[in-house]
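Reopening this ticket.

The earlier resolution said the output was attached, but the attachment link was broken on my side. Pasting everything inline this time so it's all in one place.
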Amino acid sequence: TMTSATDITTPPVVQQVTNGIRTMLGLGGLLAVVVGILILVSPLKTAAATAAIVAVYAAAVGVVYLGSALFSKGQGGWHRVGAILLGLLYLAAGIVAIGNLTATAAFLFLFITIMLGITWIVEGIVTLVSIGSSTNKVWVVVFAVISVIAGITLLFSPMMGAVTLWWLLGISLIVLGILQIVRALTFGKQK
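Inline output:
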């Protein structure tokens, strides 16, 4: 049988999949590096952009709830009322957030930091309570104490905690992004 020129130059399916994975790894790594740099270079603007994304998302969810309440034929009366109320709440939150991006960013970061502080305290207590079933009690106690102290620290200084976590996120994104790019360059290479 005769083969055309395109059959000879077309890479095998495995090579196409490898190239696709390599491309996705590289693009993901590049995006992580760019976002990490933006967080470190312009933390307030990046925080405002993050708040804008959350605000637009909230407004869009509100529109979807309103649309489902108004146009779904199979919904009961109370379900429609609940969907309308949720839709209006999401839409209002989105609009208010878009109008106050700096305040929204500060609120989001404080909320996340406080929730993280509470979570770490509860995690430390739960870990300490489970010490009886542990084979290595010393590490359980060390983990629990560090978790509780870290949680209390975040609760007593949530703004400083939020700033620190934001910077750590930026640094982590840069480091992980670079590692992801290295993975992309080496993925599928023969040894």
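Reporter confirms the inline version is readable. The first helix runs from residue 5 to 9. Residues 48 and 103 are 9 Å apart (CA to CA).
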